[in-house]
Amino acid sequence: MGSYILRRLLLVIPTLIGIMVVNFTLTQFVPGGPIEQIIAQMEGGGDVFEGISGAGAQSLESSSTSEYAGAEGLPADFIEQLEKEFGFDKPPLQRFLTMMGNYLMFDFGESYFRSVGVLELVWEKLPVSITLGLWSTLIAYVVSIPLGIRKAVRDGSTFDTWTSGAIIVAYAIPGFLFAILLLVLFAGGSYLQIFPLRGLTSDNFDQLSFFGKILDYLHHIALPVLATTISAFATLTLLTKNSFLDEIKKQYVTTAKAKGLKESSVLYGHVFRNAMLIVIAGFPSLFLGIFLTGSLIIETIFSLDGLGRLAFEAAVARDYPVVFGTLYFFGLIGLLVGILSDLMYVFVDPRIDFESRET
């Protein structure tokens, strides 16, 4: 197993470099860089994309005589100073190599527009993303595993049919639409005002007791977590059900029943471990998926300042240190979690040997 882990770790480096190369190359062809953003704001355009789209004849004439749309009213030395400050006075290859050298030392630089370190920004947004990712994953497992087992045991029954219909309907409902429905019904929209509208905690959070802080935290996260989790039940429930059905039909189950073992002993003593292999081992990747791809719309609806909004705002503003820094950092985490998922398979079932499969 050691040599397999070593090979996987060595593959992390070229994979991560490939991810960065592709994304860095794409940004070289995307219009409206950070300098254009600053020029648009200083010229009163408000948004660089107005100049790019050619909203008027004047902007078209400006773009034909200058590298930056709308830069006619700014001194050339000021533009050069901006380029030097952002590093755009250097060739793309040199900028990429410098960036990767800094990233290897976990130096992700500062945001162009916030004058705050990238890691500091990420650390500031982590509580929201961890809240949505961890609680959504735990709730999905706590609900879906027992439900999937029950559906497998009563396969084809009325219970199985109705629960399948319910979770498929839940899966089909867009998360943002369900979030709006929750706000209207329970957060002071048109009916009840049971839950707060925004944030993870109340304004008087520091003055609350220990248990008061826990209740306040749970009170705030109830609706956004539910809106994030609603679509996760279907996949995990059906995966659990199908895994159990596959195992129940195998010969060792028939043999165990023939020996007189109770159905519960067969189900939880023999079937459970084999059937839950793929479900339990997938926990790290499922959590990381929800954690990194936290819904921007859910965060916006509930006024939560998480990584989803940070990534969106950085992409719109062309805040490249934030874009590439977070991409590198979370890309590295994603690759390491992939290795952790393989280790989970071995932990759940020691009979699995990845090394023997590669030979």
From TrEMBL:
UniProt feature coiled coil, ranges: none
Protein name, UniProt field: Microcin C transport system permease protein
Every ABC transmembrane type-1 domain range: 126-345
Record keyword Transmembrane present: yes
Any one biological process term the GO annotation gives: transmembrane transport
Primary location: membrane
GO cellular component: plasma membrane
NCBIfam families with a match to the protein in the record: PRK15133.1
Family: Belongs to the binding-protein-dependent transport system permease family.
Topology term for the membrane: Multi-pass membrane protein
Keyword Transport attributed: yes
SUPFAM superfamilies: MetI-like (SSF161098)
InterPro entries: MetI-like (IPR000515), MetI-like_sf (IPR035906)
Transmembrane feature ranges: 9-26, 128-149, 161-187, 217-240, 275-302, 322-348
Protein location: Cell membrane
Biological source species: Litoreibacter ponti
Keywords recorded for this protein, A-Z: Cell membrane, Membrane, Transmembrane, Transmembrane helix, Transport
